[in-house]
Amino acid sequence: MNDLKFEMAPETEPERQYFFIEQGAVLRKQKEEELKHPLTYHVTTFGCQMNAKDSEKMKGILNEMGFINCDDEKSADLVLFNTCTIRDNANQKFYGHLGSLNDKNHRNKDRITAVCGCMMQEKGCVEKIRNSYKFVNIIFGTHNIYKLAELVCLKLAGENFVCDVWDKPKDIVEDIPSIRKYPFKAGVNIMYGCNNYCTYCIVPYVRGAERSREAKEILMECEKLASEGVKEIMLLGQNVNSYGNGIKDSISFPELLKEVEKIEGIERIRFMTSHPKDLSDELITVMKGSNKICRHIHLPLQSGSSRILKAMNRRYSKEQYLELALKIRKELPDTAITTDIIVGFPGETPEDVDETIDVIKKVRFDGAFTFIYSKRAGTPAASMEQVDPELVKKEFNRVLEAVNKESKEMAALNTGKTEDVLVDDINEQDERLLTGRMSNNMTVHFPGERSLIGKIVNVRLEECKGFYYVGSMV
Ligand code: SAH
Ligand code: SF4
Ligand code: F3S
């Protein structure tokens, strides 16, 4: 009965997905009549901002199909996991979580368990899930999340197992529904994938080659968001500073920022991530002249040893990184610089780690994520000689101590200042307090009314608690 309808689906996107959203709504209703309750969904997201953004799109699709969002993963009729594979512990965490769901309740034939995201693009992963987690009945990858409605339709129409993982991306499909965690903040993809092939990293393999979106598409999306009340936009890409490569006559990333700045209603602009090799003077100049671009640059260092940076294929040296970071400190003195550091890359010695700590002390990072190197199958570093895990643990603690010391001291320098704060939410621990973010991305908690959520207010920073502030509105 349903097959006939499916055959009528348009070939072109996104029209095809709108067709399946409608069909899915009909099938969902039929199922609801059979089960005698409204169908609910729950989405769990692992990993970075890219996955968070993808999940918003998928939630948008499920909402359009008439599924109801529910907080309880155990009772939802459709559970979706958007996975990350950046480090092995991300994978283990996911398998552990999936294993914990493997009970009779979850094996219920009416329940839909869908898994997607970066892990699914890895060799062997789909087989492992098919063999060990038989209750999973929809699997897809990173390149076709926009097809969720179609895949759910196939399942609702009676297929036992639906699997659709593509090796490579096809066209960029946009204009599908999306919902946001906060109505006043939104992420906007400006590019997908990555071409940098850092030797430790799996992202280029699971997310495909770098593709930039057309500037006019990006600006249209930002304008639409502004008209819906969005105040803060985060431009997303693995390497935003190489925006436009591969598009004929494209504008540069700093030019794109200037265009976003012109949009009325947008009060704050953030971006993530900046690869140090591509951060231009033009960007610094544009930031200097802007009062909407937030005072925060995430500038992953990875290592302070030029020898290790070379082996990582990062394409900058310790000296070049220092020169850039210190230039930002000088030209944009109120801008927070945060970073990512990997400890235990193949061949790394305590002397290499000394170099990393030297950079930490010289730049004085406002914040840092420190990771233990994780071997990823298929990357060049996986076949290099690995470092003894005991040694890595020791060196990791040294790095952690150094970054914590600097970032605590840097944070404390703001005591007594008054800052613009975008109010995000009620404080999770104490509902008399609001939680918000300053332009430099630091969190501050302060007393205030719920009605201020989504507004930008002035807050005096009274007490630094290490990585966040307690303050009061002025
Ligand atoms: N595109 C961004 C990074 C995205 S991944 C950039 O190049 O700056 C986020 C962080 O995860 C990286 O900066 C790196 O520090 C860390 N990471 C990536 N692969 C890793 C691995 N194999 N082991 C440990 N950390 C890794
Ligand atoms: Fe990975 Fe390097 Fe690309 Fe960042 S730039 S996503 S670390 S390959
Ligand atoms: Fe993870 Fe994929 Fe992001 S591997 S860090 S979710 S791009």
CATH superfamily of the largest domain: Methylthiotransferase, N-terminal domain
Q: How much strand? A: 15-25%
**Biggest beta sheet summary:** 6 strands, parallel
Structure annotation, total helices: 15
> Could you name the CATH class of the largest domain?
Alpha Beta
Secondary-structure-derived class: alpha/beta
Q: What ligand species are in this complex?
A: S-adenosyl-L-homocysteine, iron/sulfur cluster, FE3-S4 cluster
Label the CATH architecture of the largest domain.
3-Layer(aba) Sandwich
Number of strands: 19
Radius of gyration: 23 Å
As a percent range, the share of helical residues equals 25-40%
Strand order of the largest sheet: 2-1-3-4-5-6
Low-confidence stretches: none
Compile the SSE list and pairings.
Blueprint: H1 2-7, H2 15-35, E1 40-45, H3 49-64, E2 68-69, E3 78-83, H4 88-100, H5 104-107, E4 112-117, H6 125-132, E5 138-140, H7 148-156, E6 162-164, E7 185-189, E8 191-192, H8 203-207, E9 211-212, H9 215-227, E10 232-236, H10 253-261, E11 268-272, H11 281-288, E12 296-298, H12 306-311, H13 318-331, E13 336-343, H14 350-363, E14 367-372, H15 389-412, E15 418-426, E16 433-438, E17 443-447, E18 456-464, E19 468-473
Parallel strand pairs: 1-2, 1-3, 3-4, 4-5, 5-6, 7-10, 10-11, 12-13, 13-14, 17-19
Antiparallel strand pairs: 8-9, 15-16, 15-18, 16-17, 18-19
Helix pairs in contact: 2-7, 10-11, 13-14, 14-15
Bound molecules: S-adenosyl-L-homocysteine, iron/sulfur cluster and FE3-S4 cluster.
